[in-house]
Each structure stands twice: as C-alpha cells, then as structure tokens.
Specification:
single chain; 34% helix; five-stranded mixed beta sheet; 20% strand; 17 strands; alpha+beta; Creatine Amidinohydrolase, Chain A, domain 1
Length: 393
Amino acid sequence: MGLDVIAVQRALRAAGLDGWLLYDFHGSNPIAAHLAGLTDGPHMTTRRWYYLIPADGEPRGLVHAIEPHNLDQLPGHKDIYAGRRQLDEGLTRLLSGMRRVAMEYSPMCAIPYLSRVDAGTAEAIRAKGVEILSSGDLVQQFEASWTPAQLASHRTASASLYRIKDRAFDTARAALADGRTLSEYELQQMMADWFDEEGLVTDSAPVVAVGPHAGDPHYLPTVTTATSIVKDQILLLDLWGKTRDTGAVFADITWVGIASSRVPDEAARAFSAIAAARDAAVTLVEDAASHGRELRGWEVDASARRVLEERGYGDCILHRTGHSLGELVHGNGVHMDDYETHDDRRLLPGTGFTVEPGLYFDTFGVRTEINVFRGEREALVTGPRQAEIVTLL
C-alpha cells in the first residue's frame, strides 16, 4: 500500500483529529478503496468494510466473514463480522476512544467529488458518539498529491497534448485553404488516433466545437450532430489525456482558433477577458506559493471571476475556474471553485489543477485552459498560455 500510516498519524495530530475512518460498500467510496489498495489487483468487495487509522496507536479494521482478506495488505488488527449485530458490535469496538474522526464527507455536499459517505452510514457513526469531519485536506495530502514520477508523467502528457493541438489546427487550416470539407467529428476522430500515436489514454475523445457548439462547454460531436469547420467560425479544442504508465496523472488543455485571417472584435474582447482572468488566478497562486501563504480553492476562482465580472461578462460564466488533476482527469484534490460550490480546501504543495476560465454565448464560446503544479515554494504552469485566438486563414 502506498499510504504512509506514520505520516497520516502526524497529520491527524496536527489537525486535532482522533482518527481517519475509511469506509466503502460496493465501490461507493473510490477514494477509500484507492487509499486502501483495493483498486490494485483482484478484490471482491461486495460487503461493508472499515479501516481506522488513529492519531496514535495501531490501525484497526472491520471486514465481512466472506471477504476476510480484503484489508490484509494494511497494518493492524482486523475484526471479522457476519451478521448485523456483529457489525454493530464491531463498529462499537472499532470506534472506541474516538471523539472526532475524518471521513469522505462534505458538509451540505458542498464538494460532491469528496462526499462519498452515505447519510445512513454517517448516522451510524454519530450514533456511537463520534463527530464526523471532512477528510478533504487529508485526501489531498495522501491521495491527490503527485510524486516526482507523476509530475514527470504529467509533463510528458502535456507536451503530447500541445503537439496534438497544433496538429489539429494545422489540419483545419489545410482543409480551409484547399476548400475541403472537414467536420468536427472527423477532426475529433483524427485527434483520437493521434492520442494512440503519442501513447496517451483518456476517458473521452476531445471536444471539437465550431461556432455555436463552442458555446456549450461539454459539447462532444457525433456523426449526426457534427457541423463543418467553415469560414469565420470559432473552433474550440479541449483535450485531456495521460501516459500509459501506472499511476500517471492527467494533463488537460483548451485552445481556441478561428477560421479567418482576423479575429472579430467581439471574440477578441472575450478572449482578452478570459486570458486576463487566467493570469490573475495564476499570479495569485504564484504569490501565495512563494510566500508560503495559505490559499484556498474558492479564492482562486473569485480572483478570476472578478476580472470577468469587471469587464461585463458576469452573465456569460457557466462553470468554475478549475478542477483538480490526478489519475482521473477530475481529481480528488481542491477545485478552483466559488461558483458551483464553495471549495474551502487548501492548495497543498504537490497538487496539480487546471485554470480554465470561459465565456459562452449563443453564437460562440471561448475558453483558455492551462495546468498548474503547486510546489513547496513555487507554482509551475506546465505548458504555454494562449495569448490570442489562433487565426486559421
């Protein structure tokens, strides 16, 4: 298991917590399953299991009799239960001496990516006289923080994505110059093939969106919905992927072009606003990192949205400023969000995330997306920042 129990206990004591209670039923808590090592290799996990890491002392677990070996890879004693009375008694023993424990819980479900413990299980824990607090920062530290190898995998993936992006714009440019029809879907499928050539994997083909489709942040072309790349229309590309290495983490970028030799004033103003919002967010993160100052996700989002609102675009925002990056493209770390949720988690060293302000209209949309890694005393933007809309003619 990759989880460092000694380091977890040190973090629990620093946070004034008595323990961290990991719980899962049938894959309901993938964060706990990953931390417990149950996502590596074959495991039958059809019954409830619990694993408590106390701030002091030996960890202990509770597993079902028909799956008694599920936590064997973890240190500490394991109790076995079968019937519901044994489960209740086992849970009482497991929580003995605990007053305040962390779980994958988010008050009012403010952060749904973290809110993995169901209401009934929370009631059962509280019925034992135990207060539940959010494990948000613990998850960031021990599940969402990147190793040096993961940072290297991210940089490799990022470089590949930028090459694919350039190739896509060049393909669109050549089609326009030759008068050939090229649809969103055709370009998307070409890009998917280039992912294979670059050795990348992903959970979805890229977003390739023209004109009004670019005004839909999650538009994905299909054979029946795709339109052609035509003169004077915006072309938005959003692509994400990771290398095939075990433990690799994602990179995720968005760039905008236009099938014209000049950018119309309306689109240029909108892109100028999102670029300024992006840079304001990055500057805030860089300043906090260099001074060792605590910074929370909602603050980064607020700094970017403030720029957009001051320029009169408050009604054209549809999503938060950024999301965590990890082994999944939407990772389990802090999101740059004070719009969809109020993400009060800290930006911890070792974590990566996107900064991607966007503006969306009936006839077009623009978004600029970069990736940032928060180091001990620095914040690194891991790829080029788009300065203006790319002209394709």
